[in-house]
Design brief:
By secondary structure, the chain is an alpha+beta fold. It is built from ten helices and 13 strands. Strands 2-1-6-5-4-3 form a six-stranded antiparallel β-sheet, covered by helices on one side. Strands 8-10-11-13-12 form a five-stranded mixed β-sheet, covered by helices on one side. Strands 7-9 form a two-stranded antiparallel sheet.
Length: 453
């Protein structure tokens, strides 16, 4: 699972990302609002004080600029100063600020001087250009370095800001990561009952209706778990009632069917007598399959296993019921003894052969039955070359009472219980049932039974 799929799948991660996004939006809004308020306050409240402070600095430096006075300011205040002019060239530091972003100071009222300022990344810079002769042409201030202009550059000291920032950034990032980790842990702890509920629901959906979700928490998730448990109880009771009703009806039907068969046998042989006898046998077979299916559905029902080979089971079915049918039998000679239930596996073989022969035509190759041995299982395959089954029916063939032939013609026979019963028996042996089919080409059924080590 890649990162994007994991994020989509994890409710905890998505909720954490939502918190982060909300925090970023709030911080941006806060900074924007705070910046607007601070800018407005600076313009209305701080600007006059800054102008007055700049005036005091100018007075301390003097006119023309006095380098000794400037040195005193450098030693007293956290600023650096550079003075240039016709007879002066002095700087307290060689590390000059960026002068590209300077802009005119709007509160300057002295026409004989030009004041430009900048505030960038916490550092303030001020450049003052003064005429040597106050009666000179003011346009000289806009030119480059001139013999008629003094230039005073004042900026806050750089200090060791660049060295401190990485350490501070690492500390801030560490704190942020620690907070995010704590939030993720708390969210995972909050949603932990969801994992328990999901696993229990998965077990229930796989057919284990005895599974119940343990008490998780005394909140909405706990109420959800309780509701699912109550729903499972109701489903289990409904299925149990259905099973008991089906078993009771099946048992009760045996007696009248037996009496009807006896009465039919006493009738004079005729077409009607044959049809009645055939219908009674079909009803009896259906009841037997229903009873067998319900027995295998019972989790307490055990198989009657004995040491036997799959070849013995297959050949006993063919000799007893399919001796006169066209079946191409190919059995492997290396069949191991296994703990199998012969009676139920004979039923599997009979049902599969019945289905194959019903859908097989006389004009094609006979039904093919083979056995083989793999590394971990013995395999029975039965293949017919008949009409085949449409893809949309394949996944539903092992459902009870399902038939691909919706018309339920007598020619195709059955009650929709044959493959359902086959799957129950194979599953009870820990095996696998696989059905493959192509329309117009035929169907291949594979039964794999694990070899007990």
């Amino acid at each position: 699972m890649n990162i994007l799929n994991k994020i989509r799948h994890s409710l905890s991660i998505r909720l954490l990302l939502l918190f982060i996004a909300a925090a970023v939006v709030i911080v941006i809004l806060f900074q924007t609002t705070l910046g607007f308020i601070i800018t407005k306050q600076i313009k209305t409240k701080v600007a006059p004080h800054a102008h007055q402070y700049l005036h005091y600095v100018q007075q301390d430096i003097g006119y023309p600029p006095n380098i000794e006075h400037a040195k005193t300011l450098v030693n007293t205040l956290p600023v650096d100063i550079k003075i240039t002019g016709p007879d002066k060239n002095w700087a307290s530091s060689t590390q000059l600020p960026d002068l590209q972003e300077l802009h005119d100071y709007p509160h300057n009222n002295d026409k004989t001087q030009q004041v430009r300022v900048n505030f960038h990344e916490g550092q303030a810079s001020v450049r003052i250009r003064q005429l040597v002769d106050r009666n000179s042409n003011v346009q000289l201030l806009n030119k480059g370095n001139s013999d008629d202009v003094y230039e005073i550059l004042i900026w806050t000291k750089f200090g060791d800001r660049k060295e401190r920032h990485p350490v501070g950034l690492i500390i801030v990032l560490g704190v942020i990561l620690a907070i995010l980790g704590l939030l993720y842990w708390l969210i995972r702890r909050l949603f932990r009952p969801i994992q328990t509920i999901r696993k229990s629901v998965q077990t229930i959906s796989n057919g284990d209706l005895s599974q119940r979700i343990p008490d998780t928490s005394n909140d909405e998730l706990g109420e959800l778990a309780t509701s699912i448990n109550q729903m499972t109880d109701n489903i289990e009771q409904m299925l149990q009632a259905k099973r008991q009703l089906l078993l009771a009806i099946s048992h009760e039907l045996r007696s009248p069917i037996t009496r009807a068969k006896v009465s039919t046998a006493l009738l004079e042989p005729s077409d009607n007598q044959s049809n009645i006898d055939r219908d009674l046998r079909e009803m009896e077979a259906m009841i037997s399959e229903l009873l067998e299916a319900e027995r295998l559905n019972d989790k307490h029902q055990s198989l009657n296993k004995t040491d036997v080979t799959l070849n013995e089971i297959v050949m006993s079915v063919i000799d007893e019921q399919f001796l006169n049918d066209k079946v191409n039998v190919q059995l492997t000679n290396e069949q191991p003894l296994q703990q199998l239930d012969p009676t139920r596996l004979r039923l599997v073989t009979k049902n599969l052969l019945d289905n194959a022969l019903k859908h097989q035509s006389d004009e094609v190759s006979p039904v093919k039955l083979t056995t083989m041995v793999t590394a971990d299982s013995v395999v029975l395959t039965i293949e017919d070359f008949g009409t085949g089954i449409a893809p949309e029916h394949l996944s539903l063939l092992t459902e009870p009472f399902y038939r691909a032939d919706a018309s339920r013609q007598r020619k195709t026979g059955g009650f929709g219980l044959g493959l359902y019963l086959v799957k129950l028996i194979v599953d009870a042996h820990g095996g696998e049932l696989k059905i493959e089919s192509d329309l117009g080409k035929g169907t291949l059924v594979t039964v794999s039974l694990p070899i007990q080590k």
